[in-house]
From TrEMBL:
InterPro entries in UniProt: Chr_Tranpt_l_chain, Chromate_transpt
GO MF: chromate transmembrane transporter activity
Organism from which the protein derives: Alicyclobacillus macrosporangiidus
Identification of the protein by name: Chromate transporter
Family stated for the protein in its record: Belongs to the chromate ion transporter (CHR) (TC 2.A.51) family.
The entry's keywords: Cell membrane, Membrane, Transmembrane, Transmembrane helix
Membrane topology (UniProt): Multi-pass membrane protein
Recorded GO CC terms: plasma membrane
C-alpha cells in the first residue's frame, strides 16, 4: 500500500529550485531571522510556492525541531516544490555560496580583521529592515485580533527577559495550549494541503537514522580514536542537539573544536568574524572550522565532512516530520493549537528584531536613517531584496569613510 500524502504532485523542477535558492544564498545577509524574511518575500509573496498559512506552519514546525531553523524551512519548501531532490537542491543553493566563501577565508584571509568594516555594518543594518518587513507582514495575518496579539506580545516580552533556547521552546508549547483553550470552539477554515511527496515509511526510516547516528557515532569515536570520526561526531551532535540554530550553536562548536586543541580560540574567533560577512546560514561556519582543523592538503575534505555532518540532522528531521506534520495541521483541533503557536512565533520574531538584529546594527541616528531607507525600499517601492542589500552595503561603506 502506498502511504504517500494524496497531494504528492510536485509543481517545479530541481533546477528551478537550485536557481532560486542559489540567488538567495548569494544575497541573504543578516542571520536566521532575516532569512525567514527573505524566504517570505521570495517563496510566499513573489513566487507563491507556498501560501501564507503553510509558510507560517512550516516556520512553527522548524522552531520545534533542533538545528538551523531557516535552513530547515528552505529544505521543506524545496521538498514541497520538487520532491526530495528539490530539498537537496534548496540546501545546496542556499548553503554552498557561504561555505565556499568561508573555506576561501580559511585558506587566504584567515587573519583579516573584517569585524569593523563599514560595508559589513551596512549588511547588518539591512537585516533590520528585512526582519521588520517580515514581522509586519506575518503579524497582520497571524496575530490580527486581541487574543493572538496578546500572545505575541507576551511571547516577545518573555523571550527578551529570558533569552534561552529552552524558554523559546516552552513559549511555543504554552502558546499551543493557550490556543487550544481559546480557539477550540471557534470555526476555523480548512488548512490548504501541502504537497509532501514523502512516504511515511521513508519518514520513519529518516527518524530512525537520526537517532542511530546520535548513538552510534560516539561509540565508534571512542573505539577507533579517529580524528575524522571525532570531527563527524562533534559536528553531527552540534546540529542535532541545538535549538534555535544560528548563534546558539557557537558555544557548542567552540567547546567541540577549541577544547580538544583542534584549533586556537583566536582562529575560532577569526572565522566567526568572517562568517558575519557572508550571506546564507551561520552553520556554514562549520566549513571554515573543518578546513582549519586539517592540514592544507585535507582542508577541503575537512570542510566537506564538517558541513555535511552539521546539516545532516536537519535533513533527517525535516524528512521525518513533514508527512506527519501535514496530517496534523489539517486537523481542526490542531489548527486551534497552531493559531496560538503562530502568534507566539510572531512574538519571538519581534524579540529577535530587537536582539540581536537591532542592538547589533543600529548604534547611531545615521544607522537608523539607513534602516528606514532600506525598509522603505523594500515595503513601499518593492525593490528586490538583493538590490537593497547591495545599496545598504555601499551606504555602510560610505558612512564609515566619512
Amino acid at each position: 500500500m502506498n502511504d504517500v500524502d494524496p497531494n504528492v504532485k510536485t509543481t517545479g523542477s530541481v533546477l528551478e529550485v537550485l536557481k532560486v535558492c542559489t540567488r538567495l544564498g548569494l544575497t541573504s545577509f543578516g542571520g536566521p531571522i532575516a532569512h525567514l524574511g527573505y524566504f517570505h518575500e521570495e517563496y510566499v509573496k513573489r513566487r507563491k510556492w507556498v501560501d501564507e498559512q503553510s509558510y507560517a506552519d512550516l516556520v512553527a514546525l522548524c522552531q520545534f525541531l533542533p538545528g538551523p531553523a531557516s535552513s530547515q524551512v528552505g529544505i521543506a519548501i524545496g521538498i514541497e516544490r520538487a520532491g526530495l531532490l528539490g530539498g537537496l537542491a534548496a540546501w545546496v543553493g542556499f548553503t554552498l555560496p557561504s561555505a565556499i566563501a568561508l573555506v576561501v577565508f580559511a585558506y587566504v584571509l584567515k587573519g583579516l580583521n573584517i569585524q569593523h568594516a563599514g560595508w559589513l555594518h551596512g549588511l547588518m543594518i539591512v537585516a533590520v529592515a528585512v526582519v521588520a518587513q517580515a514581522v509586519w507582514s506575518m503579524a497582520t495575518k497571524l496575530a490580527p485580533d486581541k487574543p493572538r496579539g496578546t500572545i505575541a506580545i507576551l511571547a516577545a516580552i518573555t523571550t527578551l527577559v529570558w533569552p534561552t533556547a529552552f524558554i523559546q521552546v516552552l513559549i511555543i508549547v504554552l502558546a499551543g495550549v493557550v490556543g487550544w483553550l481559546l480557539f477550540f470552539k471557534r470555526q476555523v477554515s480548512d488548512a490548504p494541503p501541502m504537497r509532501v511527496p514523502i512516504e511515511r515509511k521513508t519518514a520513519i526510516f529518516s527518524l530512525v537514522l537520526f537517532f542511530a547516528f546520535l548513538i552510534v557515532l560516539p561509540m565508534l569515536r571512542s573505539v577507533t580514536h579517529s580524528q575524522t570520526l571525532a570531527l563527524i561526531d562533534s559536528f553531527y551532535r552540534a546540529g542535532a542537539l541545538v535549538f534555535g540554530g544560528g548563534h546558539v550553536v557557537l558555544p557548542l562548536l567552540q567547546n567541540a573544536v577549541v577544547t580538544p586543541g583542534w584549533l586556537t580560540n583566536g582562529e575560532f574567533l577569526a572565522g566567526y568574524g568572517a562568517a558575519q560577512a557572508v550571506p546564507g546560514p551561520l552553520f556554514t561556519f562549520s566549513a571554515y572550522l573543518g578546513a582549519v582543523m586539517h592540514p592544507r592538503p585535507n582542508g577541503i575534505l575537512g570542510a566537506t565532512l564538517a558541513l555535511i555532518s552539521i546539516f545532516l540532522p536537519a535533513f533527517l528531521l525535516v524528512i521525518g516530520a513533514l508527512p506527519f506534520w501535514n496530517a496534523m495541521r489539517r486537523h481542526s483541533g490542531f489548527q486551534s493549537v497552531l493559531m496560538g503557536i503562530n502568534a507566539s512565533v510572531v512574538g519571538i520574531l519581534v524579540a529577535a528584531l530587537y536582539n540581536p538584529v537591532w542592538t547589533s546594527a543600529v548604534k547611531t541616528p545615521v544607522d537608523f536613517c539607513l534602516a528606514i531607507a532600506a525598509f522603505g525600499l523594500l515595503v513601499i517601492w518593492k525593490v528586490p531584496p538583493w538590490v537593497v542589500v547591495l545599496l545598504s552595503a555601499i551606504g555602510g561603506a560610505v558612512v564609515s569613510s566619512l
